[in-house]
Structure formats: structure tokens, C-alpha cells
Amino acid sequence: MSLPIYLKFLENNDPDFAQAIEKVFTSAMTPGTLDQKTKLLIALALDAAHGAGQGVASIANQLRAQGVTDTEIAEALRIAYFAFGNSILATSSAAFPSEQNPK
Questions:
Q1: CA 86 to CA 7: how far, in whole Å?
Q2: Residues 18-33: what's their mean pLDDT?
Q3: Which end of the chain has the least Cβ crowding within 10 Å, N or C?
Q4: What is the rounded distance in angstroms from the CA atom of residue 3 to the CA atom of residue 50?
């Protein structure tokens, strides 16, 4: 599995590091216990959570090419919002001391 396009610059600028990153990428993204669809849905959610719009678009296109529906993509993105958005709400509770959240 070759490096994703956004990391191709490493091949010319730091080939040793590029090889190391390619091994990690291959290890993470090659189907194993989790299939390719599941791995891409996880990557999609993580890219969305980190604000990587180009990654989200690229992965969504890869998923669609595998037959994944927009409904499935939307569900994965809901999970990303739930996981990351709720942490903001939980932390925000510190602004309002109560018996459940003492100062």
C-alpha cells in the first residue's frame, strides 16, 4: 500500500521517513480483523473530528467507490460529533458548580 497523496512529498524530501510512514500506514489500513470499509469509516470520523476537510472528502469518495451509501457516511460522522462534541459539553459543566460537579 503506497503513501496517501498528501504524504507523497516525503518520498523525495525524506525517503527513509517515507518508508517508515508507509509501513505504519499499511499496517493501519490493510484489511485485517477490521475490513477496509470499517477502517475507512473510522478514518473518516477521525479526520472530521480533527477538521481535516480534504481527508474527509477523499475518504468519503473512497467509501462511495466501495458502494458505501451517504447514509452510512452520515452515521459515521454522527459518531464523530457525539464523541468529540460531548466532551466539550462535559467540560463546559465546570462553569456551573453543583453537587455533581463541585468546585
A1: 31
A2: 94
A3: C
A4: 20
**pTM for this structure?**
0.80
Sequence-ordered alpha helix ranges (H) in 9-52: 9-13, 15-29, 36-49
Nearest CA to 27 out of 1, 62, 56, 5 is that of 1
CB 26 within 8 A of CB 39: no
Q: What is the pLDDT of residues 42-99, one digit of tens each?
A: 999 999 999 999 999 999 999 999 999 999 999 999 999 998 888 888 888 889 887 6
List the one residue out of 61, 93, 94, 60 whose CA is nearest residue 77: 60
Q: What is the number of residues in the chain?
A: 103
Total Cβ atoms within 10 A of residue 73: 20
Pair 44, 73: CB distance under 8 Å:
yes
- Residue 103: predicted pLDDT: 56
